Amino acid sequence: MPSGGFFVCHDSYQSTIYNYLILVLETIFNQSDWEAVMKRLIIIQLAVFFQIAFVNIFISWGFTPKIDYKEVLTPIFEKNARATPWLVNSADGSTLSFRTEMEDGNAYNDRLYVMNTDGTNLKDLTSKLLVTDLGPMEVWRLYDLQLNKSGSRLFFRAQFNAGTRIYIFDIDKGEFLPFFIELEGPFDERKSFGINAKGNRIYYRDFVYLDATSRPGLYKCTVPDNLIEPQGCIQYLNIDQLPRGAEIGIGPLSFLGHAIDADRTLFTWTNAIFPRSLWVIDDTGLYPGPINFAPKKVTSDFQWMWSTANFQNEIISAEGKLALALINDPLFGQVPKLFAVDLESKPEKPTLFKLLAEVRAGLIWPHLTPSGRYARFTCLDYNYTRYDLLSDEMRDTASWRFDFIILTASNITEDDRYYFISTRTWDPRGFDVVQIYRVDMAPTDFSNAPNITDINFINRGITSDGNTNVTITASVSDAQGDNTIEWVKLMGLLNGIERFGNSTGPFNFSAPFNDAGIDGDVTAGNGIYTNASVVAVKEYFQDIAKPIKIGIRIIAKDNEGYYTIVDSVIKESKGIREEQAMSWIPLLLLND
Protein backbone atom coordinates (compact mmCIF):
# COMPACT_ATOMS: atom_id res chain seq x y z
CA MET A 1 0.00 0.00 0.00
CA PRO A 2 1.36 3.50 -0.77
CA SER A 3 1.98 6.08 1.90
CA GLY A 4 -1.71 6.70 2.45
CA GLY A 5 -3.81 5.15 5.18
CA PHE A 6 -6.29 2.35 5.40
CA PHE A 7 -9.80 2.10 6.78
CA VAL A 8 -11.72 -0.32 8.94
CA CYS A 9 -15.16 -0.74 7.35
CA HIS A 10 -17.97 -3.21 7.60
CA ASP A 11 -19.15 -4.87 4.42
CA SER A 12 -22.60 -3.33 4.93
CA TYR A 13 -21.78 -0.74 2.26
CA GLN A 14 -21.07 -3.41 -0.28
CA SER A 15 -24.20 -5.37 0.51
CA THR A 16 -26.31 -2.21 0.51
CA ILE A 17 -25.21 -1.06 -2.94
CA TYR A 18 -25.37 -4.60 -4.32
CA ASN A 19 -28.95 -4.98 -3.09
CA TYR A 20 -29.77 -1.53 -4.41
CA LEU A 21 -28.61 -2.43 -7.93
CA ILE A 22 -30.53 -5.71 -7.83
CA LEU A 23 -33.71 -3.95 -6.79
CA VAL A 24 -33.29 -1.36 -9.52
CA LEU A 25 -32.90 -4.03 -12.20
CA GLU A 26 -35.81 -6.05 -10.87
CA THR A 27 -37.99 -2.95 -10.80
CA ILE A 28 -37.15 -1.97 -14.37
CA PHE A 29 -37.64 -5.43 -15.85
CA ASN A 30 -40.68 -6.46 -13.81
CA GLN A 31 -42.73 -3.28 -14.11
CA SER A 32 -44.44 -2.05 -17.24
CA ASP A 33 -45.85 1.04 -15.54
CA TRP A 34 -43.01 3.60 -15.59
CA GLU A 35 -44.75 5.80 -13.04
CA ALA A 36 -44.77 2.85 -10.65
CA VAL A 37 -41.13 2.25 -11.50
CA MET A 38 -40.18 5.79 -10.53
CA LYS A 39 -42.14 5.65 -7.27
CA ARG A 40 -40.49 2.39 -6.31
CA LEU A 41 -37.02 3.72 -7.14
CA ILE A 42 -37.64 6.71 -4.87
CA ILE A 43 -38.66 4.37 -2.03
CA ILE A 44 -35.55 2.23 -2.64
CA GLN A 45 -33.32 5.31 -2.61
CA LEU A 46 -34.77 6.47 0.70
CA ALA A 47 -34.30 3.02 2.21
CA VAL A 48 -30.69 2.89 1.05
CA PHE A 49 -30.06 6.38 2.39
CA PHE A 50 -31.31 5.49 5.86
CA GLN A 51 -29.46 2.19 5.84
CA ILE A 52 -26.14 3.85 4.93
CA ALA A 53 -26.78 6.56 7.52
CA PHE A 54 -27.35 3.90 10.15
CA VAL A 55 -24.15 2.08 9.17
CA ASN A 56 -22.22 5.38 9.30
CA ILE A 57 -23.49 6.04 12.81
CA PHE A 58 -22.69 2.46 13.84
CA ILE A 59 -19.14 2.67 12.48
CA SER A 60 -18.58 6.05 14.10
CA TRP A 61 -19.13 4.27 17.40
CA GLY A 62 -16.43 1.76 16.50
CA PHE A 63 -16.43 -1.96 15.85
CA THR A 64 -16.00 -5.17 17.79
CA PRO A 65 -13.44 -7.53 16.24
CA LYS A 66 -13.87 -11.26 16.51
CA ILE A 67 -11.94 -12.99 19.31
CA ASP A 68 -9.58 -15.26 17.42
CA TYR A 69 -7.82 -17.08 20.26
CA LYS A 70 -7.93 -17.47 24.03
CA GLU A 71 -5.43 -19.04 26.41
CA VAL A 72 -5.23 -19.49 30.18
CA LEU A 73 -2.14 -20.20 32.30
CA THR A 74 -2.94 -21.93 35.60
CA PRO A 75 -0.26 -22.23 38.34
CA ILE A 76 -0.14 -25.80 39.66
CA PHE A 77 3.21 -26.02 41.52
CA GLU A 78 5.59 -23.66 43.32
CA LYS A 79 8.88 -24.33 45.10
CA ASN A 80 12.03 -22.54 46.16
CA ALA A 81 14.57 -24.23 43.91
CA ARG A 82 17.38 -23.42 41.52
CA ALA A 83 15.63 -24.68 38.38
CA THR A 84 13.25 -27.20 36.84
CA PRO A 85 15.21 -28.18 33.75
CA TRP A 86 13.09 -31.17 32.74
CA LEU A 87 9.30 -31.43 32.53
CA VAL A 88 7.15 -34.10 30.87
CA ASN A 89 3.42 -34.91 30.68
CA SER A 90 1.56 -38.03 29.63
CA ALA A 91 -0.11 -37.84 26.23
CA ASP A 92 -3.58 -38.17 27.76
CA GLY A 93 -2.91 -35.11 29.92
CA SER A 94 -3.38 -36.84 33.29
CA THR A 95 0.13 -37.00 34.77
CA LEU A 96 3.13 -34.72 35.05
CA SER A 97 6.70 -35.51 36.08
CA PHE A 98 9.57 -33.10 36.61
CA ARG A 99 12.90 -32.68 38.25
CA THR A 100 14.21 -29.75 40.29
CA GLU A 101 17.74 -29.00 41.33
CA MET A 102 18.32 -29.41 45.05
CA GLU A 103 17.63 -26.38 47.23
CA ASP A 104 21.01 -26.77 48.93
CA GLY A 105 22.68 -25.44 45.80
CA ASN A 106 24.49 -28.68 44.92
CA ALA A 107 24.40 -28.58 41.12
CA TYR A 108 24.85 -32.35 40.88
CA ASN A 109 21.79 -33.55 42.78
CA ASP A 110 18.18 -33.51 41.60
CA ARG A 111 14.76 -34.13 43.09
CA LEU A 112 12.22 -36.14 41.14
CA TYR A 113 8.44 -35.60 41.34
CA VAL A 114 5.20 -36.85 39.80
CA MET A 115 1.73 -35.38 40.23
CA ASN A 116 -1.64 -34.98 38.58
CA THR A 117 -1.77 -32.23 35.99
CA ASP A 118 -4.27 -30.24 38.07
CA GLY A 119 -1.59 -29.91 40.77
CA THR A 120 -2.93 -32.60 43.12
CA ASN A 121 -1.36 -35.82 44.43
CA LEU A 122 2.24 -34.59 44.44
CA LYS A 123 4.79 -37.37 45.10
CA ASP A 124 8.48 -36.85 45.83
CA LEU A 125 10.30 -39.91 44.44
CA THR A 126 13.75 -38.77 45.52
CA SER A 127 13.99 -40.92 48.64
CA LYS A 128 13.11 -44.04 46.65
CA LEU A 129 15.70 -43.18 44.02
CA LEU A 130 18.51 -42.68 46.51
CA VAL A 131 18.61 -46.40 47.28
CA THR A 132 19.29 -48.58 44.25
CA ASP A 133 20.91 -51.90 43.51
CA LEU A 134 24.30 -50.17 43.78
CA GLY A 135 23.54 -48.45 47.07
CA PRO A 136 22.93 -44.72 47.65
CA MET A 137 23.71 -42.41 44.76
CA GLU A 138 25.99 -39.67 45.95
CA VAL A 139 26.19 -37.62 42.76
CA TRP A 140 23.55 -37.92 40.07
CA ARG A 141 21.55 -36.06 37.45
CA LEU A 142 18.29 -37.02 35.72
CA TYR A 143 17.52 -36.69 32.02
CA ASP A 144 15.10 -37.92 29.37
CA LEU A 145 12.01 -38.04 31.57
CA GLN A 146 9.21 -39.79 29.65
CA LEU A 147 5.71 -40.96 30.63
CA ASN A 148 3.64 -43.56 28.87
CA LYS A 149 0.32 -42.48 27.39
CA SER A 150 -1.80 -43.15 30.49
CA GLY A 151 0.78 -41.73 32.91
CA SER A 152 1.20 -44.99 34.84
CA ARG A 153 4.93 -45.48 34.13
CA LEU A 154 7.79 -43.03 34.32
CA PHE A 155 11.02 -43.64 32.40
CA PHE A 156 14.20 -41.62 32.88
CA ARG A 157 17.95 -41.71 32.40
CA ALA A 158 20.23 -41.18 35.39
CA GLN A 159 23.85 -40.14 35.33
CA PHE A 160 25.65 -40.74 38.60
CA ASN A 161 29.02 -41.71 40.01
CA ALA A 162 28.69 -45.33 38.86
CA GLY A 163 27.61 -44.70 35.26
CA THR A 164 24.53 -43.96 33.13
CA ARG A 165 21.37 -46.03 33.24
CA ILE A 166 17.71 -46.03 32.22
CA TYR A 167 15.20 -46.65 35.01
CA ILE A 168 11.44 -47.25 35.20
CA PHE A 169 9.09 -46.24 37.99
CA ASP A 170 5.58 -47.71 38.29
CA ILE A 171 3.57 -44.73 39.53
CA ASP A 172 0.49 -46.69 40.58
CA LYS A 173 2.51 -49.26 42.57
CA GLY A 174 5.13 -46.80 43.79
CA GLU A 175 7.94 -49.17 42.77
CA PHE A 176 11.21 -48.77 40.89
CA LEU A 177 12.55 -51.41 38.60
CA PRO A 178 15.63 -52.50 40.61
CA PHE A 179 17.99 -52.39 37.67
CA PHE A 180 17.43 -51.64 34.04
CA ILE A 181 19.75 -50.74 31.16
CA GLU A 182 23.26 -49.41 31.43
CA LEU A 183 24.31 -47.15 28.57
CA GLU A 184 27.80 -47.01 27.17
CA GLY A 185 29.54 -44.35 25.19
CA PRO A 186 29.67 -40.53 25.46
CA PHE A 187 27.07 -38.87 27.66
CA ASP A 188 25.15 -35.84 26.45
CA GLU A 189 21.73 -34.26 26.92
CA ARG A 190 20.28 -35.43 23.63
CA LYS A 191 17.32 -37.78 23.68
CA SER A 192 18.67 -41.30 23.97
CA PHE A 193 15.54 -43.46 24.08
CA GLY A 194 11.81 -43.60 23.37
CA ILE A 195 8.83 -45.67 24.50
CA ASN A 196 5.54 -46.90 23.07
CA ALA A 197 2.13 -45.73 24.25
CA LYS A 198 1.56 -48.54 26.74
CA GLY A 199 5.04 -48.26 28.20
CA ASN A 200 5.90 -51.93 27.77
CA ARG A 201 8.50 -51.40 25.08
CA ILE A 202 11.58 -49.18 25.16
CA TYR A 203 13.79 -48.20 22.21
CA TYR A 204 17.24 -46.72 22.75
CA ARG A 205 20.56 -45.90 21.15
CA ASP A 206 23.79 -47.28 22.52
CA PHE A 207 27.44 -46.65 21.61
CA VAL A 208 29.43 -49.85 22.09
CA TYR A 209 32.89 -50.07 20.51
CA LEU A 210 34.12 -53.34 22.02
CA ASP A 211 34.59 -55.80 19.16
CA ALA A 212 33.26 -56.78 15.75
CA THR A 213 30.19 -58.48 17.28
CA SER A 214 29.23 -55.54 19.46
CA ARG A 215 28.57 -52.48 17.36
CA PRO A 216 26.78 -49.16 17.97
CA GLY A 217 23.12 -49.22 17.01
CA LEU A 218 19.49 -49.22 18.11
CA TYR A 219 18.08 -51.62 20.68
CA LYS A 220 14.60 -52.50 21.95
CA CYS A 221 13.43 -54.32 25.07
CA THR A 222 10.09 -55.59 26.32
CA VAL A 223 9.06 -54.46 29.82
CA PRO A 224 6.76 -57.03 31.50
CA ASP A 225 3.57 -55.87 33.19
CA ASN A 226 4.85 -57.10 36.55
CA LEU A 227 7.81 -54.74 36.20
CA ILE A 228 10.58 -57.27 36.59
CA GLU A 229 13.79 -57.34 34.57
CA PRO A 230 13.22 -56.38 30.90
CA GLN A 231 13.10 -59.26 28.50
CA GLY A 232 13.84 -59.86 24.84
CA CYS A 233 16.37 -57.05 24.49
CA ILE A 234 17.65 -57.15 20.93
CA GLN A 235 19.58 -54.93 18.60
CA TYR A 236 17.22 -54.07 15.76
CA LEU A 237 19.69 -51.84 13.91
CA ASN A 238 23.42 -52.42 13.66
CA ILE A 239 25.42 -49.48 12.44
CA ASP A 240 27.01 -51.76 9.84
CA GLN A 241 23.61 -52.07 8.12
CA LEU A 242 23.95 -48.43 7.04
CA PRO A 243 26.16 -47.06 4.25
CA ARG A 244 29.62 -46.41 5.60
CA GLY A 245 31.71 -43.39 4.85
CA ALA A 246 33.73 -40.73 6.55
CA GLU A 247 31.86 -40.43 9.85
CA ILE A 248 31.22 -36.79 10.68
CA GLY A 249 29.92 -35.19 13.84
CA ILE A 250 29.51 -36.24 17.45
CA GLY A 251 28.50 -39.84 17.08
CA PRO A 252 27.53 -41.04 13.61
CA LEU A 253 24.13 -42.34 14.75
CA SER A 254 21.71 -40.00 16.54
CA PHE A 255 18.42 -41.19 18.04
CA LEU A 256 15.63 -38.69 17.34
CA GLY A 257 12.51 -40.32 18.72
CA HIS A 258 10.02 -43.16 18.52
CA ALA A 259 6.36 -43.08 17.44
CA ILE A 260 4.23 -44.08 20.44
CA ASP A 261 1.51 -45.74 18.33
CA ALA A 262 3.73 -47.37 15.69
CA ASP A 263 6.86 -49.49 15.70
CA ARG A 264 8.85 -46.77 14.01
CA THR A 265 12.07 -45.08 15.10
CA LEU A 266 13.43 -41.82 13.71
CA PHE A 267 17.19 -41.28 13.60
CA THR A 268 19.97 -39.65 11.61
CA TRP A 269 23.02 -41.25 10.11
CA THR A 270 25.76 -38.79 9.31
CA ASN A 271 28.44 -39.74 6.83
CA ALA A 272 29.93 -38.62 3.53
CA ILE A 273 27.24 -40.40 1.48
CA PHE A 274 24.13 -39.13 3.27
CA PRO A 275 25.21 -36.01 5.17
CA ARG A 276 21.74 -34.52 5.64
CA SER A 277 19.34 -37.43 5.81
CA LEU A 278 16.57 -38.60 8.07
CA TRP A 279 16.21 -42.34 8.49
CA VAL A 280 13.21 -44.36 9.59
CA ILE A 281 13.22 -47.95 10.76
CA ASP A 282 10.22 -50.08 11.74
CA ASP A 283 9.56 -53.76 12.40
CA THR A 284 10.15 -54.62 8.74
CA GLY A 285 13.51 -52.88 8.56
CA LEU A 286 14.59 -49.57 7.10
CA TYR A 287 11.57 -47.71 5.77
CA PRO A 288 11.46 -46.06 3.35
CA GLY A 289 15.19 -45.55 3.36
CA PRO A 290 17.05 -42.28 3.73
CA ILE A 291 14.96 -39.14 3.30
CA ASN A 292 17.26 -36.59 1.73
CA PHE A 293 16.53 -32.92 1.91
CA ALA A 294 18.35 -32.16 -1.34
CA PRO A 295 19.51 -34.98 -3.62
CA LYS A 296 22.41 -32.94 -4.88
CA LYS A 297 26.12 -33.43 -4.78
CA VAL A 298 27.70 -32.72 -1.42
CA THR A 299 29.48 -29.39 -1.52
CA SER A 300 30.28 -28.68 2.10
CA ASP A 301 30.96 -30.40 5.41
CA PHE A 302 28.61 -27.94 7.13
CA GLN A 303 25.48 -29.73 5.93
CA TRP A 304 23.61 -31.53 8.69
CA MET A 305 20.21 -32.49 10.00
CA TRP A 306 19.70 -32.62 13.79
CA SER A 307 23.34 -33.72 13.97
CA THR A 308 24.12 -32.29 17.41
CA ALA A 309 20.61 -31.43 18.50
CA ASN A 310 19.86 -30.87 22.18
CA PHE A 311 16.12 -31.40 22.38
CA GLN A 312 13.85 -33.25 24.76
CA ASN A 313 10.34 -33.18 23.27
CA GLU A 314 8.83 -35.50 20.71
CA ILE A 315 9.44 -34.51 17.09
CA ILE A 316 7.63 -37.47 15.48
CA SER A 317 3.85 -37.94 15.35
CA ALA A 318 2.15 -40.78 17.24
CA GLU A 319 1.62 -42.79 14.05
CA GLY A 320 5.09 -42.06 12.74
CA LYS A 321 3.90 -40.34 9.57
CA LEU A 322 5.30 -36.85 10.20
CA ALA A 323 8.45 -35.49 11.80
CA LEU A 324 10.37 -32.27 12.30
CA ALA A 325 13.79 -31.68 10.76
CA LEU A 326 16.27 -28.92 11.50
CA ILE A 327 18.47 -28.52 8.44
CA ASN A 328 21.51 -26.41 7.72
CA ASP A 329 22.47 -26.65 4.05
CA PRO A 330 24.56 -24.10 2.15
CA LEU A 331 22.61 -25.00 -0.97
CA PHE A 332 19.61 -23.34 0.69
CA GLY A 333 21.34 -20.58 2.60
CA GLN A 334 23.45 -20.57 5.75
CA VAL A 335 20.51 -19.99 8.13
CA PRO A 336 19.21 -23.27 9.59
CA LYS A 337 15.61 -24.00 8.73
CA LEU A 338 12.93 -25.94 10.56
CA PHE A 339 10.81 -28.21 8.36
CA ALA A 340 7.92 -30.61 8.75
CA VAL A 341 8.63 -33.82 6.83
CA ASP A 342 6.24 -36.38 5.38
CA LEU A 343 7.81 -39.71 6.33
CA GLU A 344 5.27 -41.65 4.26
CA SER A 345 6.67 -40.41 0.99
CA LYS A 346 7.81 -43.33 -1.14
CA PRO A 347 11.13 -43.33 -2.99
CA GLU A 348 9.33 -42.94 -6.32
CA LYS A 349 7.81 -39.58 -5.34
CA PRO A 350 9.41 -36.48 -3.84
CA THR A 351 9.49 -36.21 -0.08
CA LEU A 352 7.23 -33.44 1.18
CA PHE A 353 8.97 -30.73 3.20
CA LYS A 354 7.06 -27.75 4.65
CA LEU A 355 9.16 -24.80 5.80
CA LEU A 356 8.06 -23.64 9.25
CA ALA A 357 10.68 -21.05 10.18
CA GLU A 358 14.20 -19.82 9.70
CA VAL A 359 16.14 -20.47 12.88
CA ARG A 360 18.32 -17.40 13.12
CA ALA A 361 19.11 -17.99 16.80
CA GLY A 362 18.91 -20.97 19.16
CA LEU A 363 16.00 -23.32 18.61
CA ILE A 364 14.53 -24.68 21.86
CA TRP A 365 11.64 -27.00 22.73
CA PRO A 366 10.72 -28.04 19.17
CA HIS A 367 7.74 -30.37 19.28
CA LEU A 368 5.31 -32.14 16.94
CA THR A 369 1.96 -33.06 18.49
CA PRO A 370 0.86 -36.71 18.59
CA SER A 371 -1.87 -35.92 16.05
CA GLY A 372 0.63 -34.35 13.66
CA ARG A 373 -1.61 -31.28 13.46
CA TYR A 374 0.68 -28.78 15.16
CA ALA A 375 4.36 -28.02 15.52
CA ARG A 376 5.66 -25.79 18.32
CA PHE A 377 9.04 -24.10 18.56
CA THR A 378 10.92 -21.17 20.06
CA CYS A 379 13.75 -19.18 18.53
CA LEU A 380 14.43 -15.58 17.54
CA ASP A 381 11.09 -13.91 16.64
CA TYR A 382 9.05 -16.94 17.74
CA ASN A 383 7.84 -17.39 21.32
CA TYR A 384 6.56 -20.97 21.83
CA THR A 385 4.87 -20.55 18.49
CA ARG A 386 2.23 -23.09 17.46
CA TYR A 387 2.22 -23.78 13.71
CA ASP A 388 -0.97 -25.31 12.26
CA LEU A 389 0.22 -27.70 9.55
CA LEU A 390 -3.27 -27.79 7.98
CA SER A 391 -3.92 -24.06 7.69
CA ASP A 392 -0.34 -22.71 7.90
CA GLU A 393 -1.46 -20.30 10.62
CA MET A 394 0.95 -19.42 13.43
CA ARG A 395 0.29 -18.28 16.98
CA ASP A 396 2.62 -17.29 19.81
CA THR A 397 1.41 -19.27 22.82
CA ALA A 398 3.74 -17.45 25.22
CA SER A 399 4.15 -13.72 25.68
CA TRP A 400 7.09 -11.43 26.23
CA ARG A 401 4.86 -9.65 28.77
CA PHE A 402 4.83 -12.54 31.25
CA ASP A 403 6.44 -11.81 34.62
CA PHE A 404 8.72 -14.83 34.50
CA ILE A 405 11.37 -16.67 32.48
CA ILE A 406 10.28 -19.94 30.91
CA LEU A 407 12.76 -22.72 31.66
CA THR A 408 11.09 -25.81 30.20
CA ALA A 409 8.12 -26.68 27.98
CA SER A 410 6.55 -30.12 27.81
CA ASN A 411 4.86 -31.91 24.91
CA ILE A 412 1.37 -30.88 23.84
CA THR A 413 -1.30 -33.40 24.86
CA GLU A 414 -2.91 -35.73 22.31
CA ASP A 415 -6.07 -33.59 22.18
CA ASP A 416 -3.92 -30.63 21.00
CA ARG A 417 -5.07 -28.54 23.95
CA TYR A 418 -2.59 -28.45 26.85
CA TYR A 419 1.11 -28.24 27.55
CA PHE A 420 3.10 -27.34 30.67
CA ILE A 421 5.91 -24.90 31.40
CA SER A 422 8.29 -24.44 34.30
CA THR A 423 9.22 -20.85 35.09
CA ARG A 424 11.61 -18.94 37.31
CA THR A 425 11.27 -15.63 39.09
CA TRP A 426 13.57 -13.93 41.58
CA ASP A 427 12.30 -13.59 45.13
CA PRO A 428 13.33 -10.38 46.98
CA ARG A 429 14.46 -12.58 49.90
CA GLY A 430 17.32 -13.84 47.76
CA PHE A 431 16.31 -17.14 46.16
CA ASP A 432 14.72 -18.41 42.99
CA VAL A 433 11.05 -19.37 42.84
CA VAL A 434 10.21 -22.16 40.41
CA GLN A 435 6.61 -22.47 39.26
CA ILE A 436 4.84 -24.85 36.90
CA TYR A 437 1.90 -23.67 34.80
CA ARG A 438 -0.68 -25.56 32.80
CA VAL A 439 -1.18 -23.82 29.44
CA ASP A 440 -4.73 -24.28 28.13
CA MET A 441 -4.98 -23.23 24.47
CA ALA A 442 -8.78 -23.72 24.31
CA PRO A 443 -10.11 -22.67 27.74
CA THR A 444 -13.77 -22.85 28.73
CA ASP A 445 -13.50 -22.32 32.50
CA PHE A 446 -12.81 -18.83 33.86
CA SER A 447 -13.78 -19.52 37.47
CA ASN A 448 -10.22 -18.68 38.58
CA ALA A 449 -8.50 -16.88 35.72
CA PRO A 450 -9.37 -13.40 34.42
CA ASN A 451 -11.82 -13.27 31.52
CA ILE A 452 -11.41 -10.78 28.67
CA THR A 453 -14.45 -9.91 26.56
CA ASP A 454 -16.01 -7.11 24.49
CA ILE A 455 -12.92 -5.81 22.73
CA ASN A 456 -13.73 -2.63 20.78
CA PHE A 457 -12.01 -0.19 18.46
CA ILE A 458 -13.75 3.09 19.29
CA ASN A 459 -12.62 5.05 16.24
CA ARG A 460 -14.21 4.71 12.82
CA GLY A 461 -10.92 3.82 11.20
CA ILE A 462 -7.25 3.17 11.79
CA THR A 463 -4.93 5.18 9.59
CA SER A 464 -1.41 4.12 8.81
CA ASP A 465 0.07 7.61 8.80
CA GLY A 466 1.98 6.85 12.00
CA ASN A 467 0.38 9.78 13.84
CA THR A 468 -3.34 9.14 14.34
CA ASN A 469 -4.31 7.65 17.70
CA VAL A 470 -6.89 4.89 17.99
CA THR A 471 -8.75 4.00 21.17
CA ILE A 472 -9.11 0.34 22.14
CA THR A 473 -11.23 -0.90 25.04
CA ALA A 474 -11.84 -4.32 26.60
CA SER A 475 -13.93 -5.66 29.47
CA VAL A 476 -11.79 -7.58 31.97
CA SER A 477 -13.32 -9.40 34.93
CA ASP A 478 -12.34 -11.95 37.55
CA ALA A 479 -14.70 -14.31 39.40
CA GLN A 480 -12.85 -13.53 42.65
CA GLY A 481 -13.56 -9.83 42.17
CA ASP A 482 -12.23 -7.23 39.76
CA ASN A 483 -9.92 -5.89 42.47
CA THR A 484 -7.88 -9.11 42.16
CA ILE A 485 -6.66 -8.17 38.67
CA GLU A 486 -3.00 -7.21 38.98
CA TRP A 487 -2.50 -5.78 35.48
CA VAL A 488 -3.77 -5.79 31.90
CA LYS A 489 -1.37 -5.22 28.99
CA LEU A 490 -1.73 -4.67 25.26
CA MET A 491 0.44 -5.83 22.34
CA GLY A 492 0.29 -5.81 18.56
CA LEU A 493 0.27 -9.00 16.49
CA LEU A 494 1.46 -9.67 12.98
CA ASN A 495 0.38 -13.07 11.64
CA GLY A 496 -0.10 -14.26 15.21
CA ILE A 497 3.45 -13.31 16.29
CA GLU A 498 4.23 -10.80 19.05
CA ARG A 499 7.80 -9.83 18.32
CA PHE A 500 9.40 -8.94 15.02
CA GLY A 501 13.17 -8.64 15.30
CA ASN A 502 14.05 -5.26 16.77
CA SER A 503 10.72 -3.76 15.79
CA THR A 504 7.76 -3.00 18.05
CA GLY A 505 5.35 -4.66 15.67
CA PRO A 506 2.38 -3.17 13.79
CA PHE A 507 1.29 -0.85 16.63
CA ASN A 508 2.92 1.54 19.07
CA PHE A 509 1.48 2.44 22.48
CA SER A 510 2.53 5.55 24.36
CA ALA A 511 0.31 4.88 27.39
CA PRO A 512 -0.60 1.76 29.38
CA PHE A 513 -3.85 -0.16 29.17
CA ASN A 514 -5.74 1.06 32.26
CA ASP A 515 -9.00 1.22 34.18
CA ALA A 516 -7.89 4.16 36.32
CA GLY A 517 -9.89 6.93 34.65
CA ILE A 518 -6.77 8.41 33.03
CA ASP A 519 -5.17 8.49 29.58
CA GLY A 520 -8.51 8.20 27.79
CA ASP A 521 -10.25 5.82 30.20
CA VAL A 522 -13.67 7.30 30.93
CA THR A 523 -14.61 5.68 34.23
CA ALA A 524 -12.22 4.29 36.80
CA GLY A 525 -12.83 0.85 38.26
CA ASN A 526 -15.68 -0.25 35.99
CA GLY A 527 -13.79 -3.19 34.47
CA ILE A 528 -13.41 -1.50 31.07
CA TYR A 529 -9.74 -1.06 30.26
CA THR A 530 -8.74 1.60 27.76
CA ASN A 531 -5.79 2.61 25.66
CA ALA A 532 -6.29 5.76 23.59
CA SER A 533 -2.71 5.95 22.32
CA VAL A 534 -2.60 3.12 19.76
CA VAL A 535 -0.78 4.22 16.61
CA ALA A 536 -0.26 2.07 13.53
CA VAL A 537 3.38 1.70 12.46
CA LYS A 538 3.41 3.05 8.94
CA GLU A 539 5.94 0.61 7.49
CA TYR A 540 3.75 -2.44 8.15
CA PHE A 541 0.94 -1.15 5.95
CA GLN A 542 2.84 0.06 2.92
CA ASP A 543 3.24 -1.88 -0.31
CA ILE A 544 1.67 -5.01 1.09
CA ALA A 545 2.15 -7.75 -1.48
CA LYS A 546 -0.21 -10.33 0.03
CA PRO A 547 -2.89 -10.54 2.71
CA ILE A 548 -1.56 -10.52 6.24
CA LYS A 549 -3.23 -10.66 9.63
CA ILE A 550 -2.77 -7.71 11.93
CA GLY A 551 -4.27 -7.76 15.37
CA ILE A 552 -4.27 -6.96 19.04
CA ARG A 553 -3.29 -9.21 21.95
CA ILE A 554 -4.55 -8.47 25.47
CA ILE A 555 -2.94 -10.16 28.48
CA ALA A 556 -4.37 -10.07 32.00
CA LYS A 557 -2.84 -11.34 35.25
CA ASP A 558 -4.53 -11.66 38.64
CA ASN A 559 -2.92 -11.69 42.07
CA GLU A 560 -3.18 -15.49 42.28
CA GLY A 561 -0.78 -15.83 39.34
CA TYR A 562 -3.33 -16.79 36.66
CA TYR A 563 -2.75 -15.37 33.17
CA THR A 564 -5.23 -14.99 30.31
CA ILE A 565 -4.37 -14.18 26.70
CA VAL A 566 -6.95 -13.03 24.15
CA ASP A 567 -6.18 -12.26 20.51
CA SER A 568 -8.45 -10.18 18.30
CA VAL A 569 -7.20 -10.34 14.75
CA ILE A 570 -8.15 -8.13 11.86
CA LYS A 571 -7.25 -8.96 8.29
CA GLU A 572 -5.29 -6.72 5.95
CA SER A 573 -6.30 -7.20 2.33
CA LYS A 574 -4.05 -6.62 -0.65
CA GLY A 575 -3.19 -2.95 -0.94
CA ILE A 576 -5.60 -0.53 -2.63
CA ARG A 577 -4.55 3.08 -3.06
CA GLU A 578 -6.43 5.23 -0.59
CA GLU A 579 -6.99 8.02 -3.08
CA GLN A 580 -8.60 5.56 -5.49
CA ALA A 581 -10.81 3.86 -2.91
CA MET A 582 -14.39 4.78 -2.16
CA SER A 583 -15.33 4.63 1.50
CA TRP A 584 -17.30 1.42 1.12
CA ILE A 585 -14.41 -0.63 -0.29
CA PRO A 586 -13.14 -2.82 2.58
CA LEU A 587 -9.41 -2.24 2.79
CA LEU A 588 -9.27 -3.81 6.23
CA LEU A 589 -11.83 -6.41 7.24
CA LEU A 590 -12.63 -8.39 10.32
CA ASN A 591 -11.97 -12.08 10.17
CA ASP A 592 -14.82 -14.08 8.72
Task: Walk me through this protein's architecture.
By secondary structure, the protein is mainly β. The strands form nine sheets. Strands 1, 30, 31, 32, 35, 38, 39 and 40 form an eight-stranded antiparallel β-sheet that branches. Strands 8, 9, 10, 11 and 12 form a five-stranded antiparallel β-sheet that branches. Strands 17, 18, 19, 20 and 21 form a five-stranded antiparallel β-sheet that branches. β23 (322-328) and β24 (337-342) form a beta hairpin. The longest helix has 28 residues, at 34-61. 38% of the residues are buried.
- Quick one: overall form? globular
Q: Taking Cα atoms only, what radius of gyration do you get, to the nearest Å? A: 29 Å
**Based on helices, strands and strand pairing, what is the structural class?**
mainly beta
Number of helices: 3
Query: For the residues shown, what is the average pLDDT?
Result: 76
Number of strands: 40
Instruction: Tell me the span between the first and last alpha carbons.
Output: 22 Å
Pick out the low-confidence regions: 1-18, 51-61, 294-302, 572-592
Q: Approximately how much beta-strand content do the residues carry?
A: 35-45%
Tell me about the largest β-sheet: 8 strands, antiparallel
Helix % is: under 10%
Write out key terms for the chains shown.
41% strand, 8-stranded antiparallel beta sheet, 592 residues, disordered N terminus, 9% helix, 3 helices, mainly beta, 5-stranded antiparallel beta sheet, 40 strands
